Structures are given as C-alpha cells and as structure tokens.
Amino acid sequence: MNHLTPDNQRPPCVLIAEDDQALRELLSFAMNRAGFSVACCNNGKRLLEILENGIDDASTAVDIVITDLRMPALSGLEVLEALFDRPERPPIICMTAFGDAKTHQAAIRFGATHTIDKPFDIDEMIDLVRAVYNYKNSQKE
Are 17 and 67 in contact (CB under 8 A)? Predict the structure, then answer.
C-alpha cells in the first residue's frame, strides 16, 4: 500500500533527469521504494520533450521533476528558462555538483523549487520530494 495516495489513485510521478547513470538509477530506486512512480531521462533535451509532450503513456502526468543542472543537449537551467512562463509546469528540484551562489540564484530565478548540492543524502531528497508534493497538493485545495 502506498502511503502517499489512497488505494484508488495512481502514485505521484517523479521525473528524474540525470546524465550520470549510477545516480539516476539510485534516485529511481529510492523514489520507487518511497512510493513514487518514476520516469527517467539522461539529458535536458529529453526532459524538455517529456514536459512538453508527456511521458510515453500520456495518461501519466509528471508531478515533480528532479533535474541535474549540467547535462548534455540542454542544461537544467536552459530547461527551466524554456518553461519559465508556463504555469502548468510541475515543481522542479535542481541538483548540482557545481553549487555556487550564482548557480543557485539562477535556478531559483527561473523557477526552481529548490536547488541541492551534490553529494546529498538520499533520505533528505525523499523528504524534500514528499514536502514539495504535499505543498503542491495543498495549494490545489
């Protein structure tokens, strides 16, 4: 049983965009065990495509995005900038190994919910995703 949603609803979907395969798999495993459904991609161009066109199964909506800021094709910042004026976009949590103040400020300016420096504690990331998801849902009511 999923503690995030009632039995008759789908679990919240987390989209993970990370070019490092090991970290992408670790986050996917951890989020899945925490009760989320998970979709993944390995570059910013694919992330933007998914957010614009939906996941392969169009009935699956993305509830939260976790994205690296430095990726091939498009950076996480470029994706944030492209989505800046879209009110329907999901909350976006950014992660970076290059977490200077300028990078954090740019991510927040373009609408990131949070920016986390790598390495980070997986349990803290799960707690953050839950908090962002719960906050997002409380705003709908």
Answer: yes
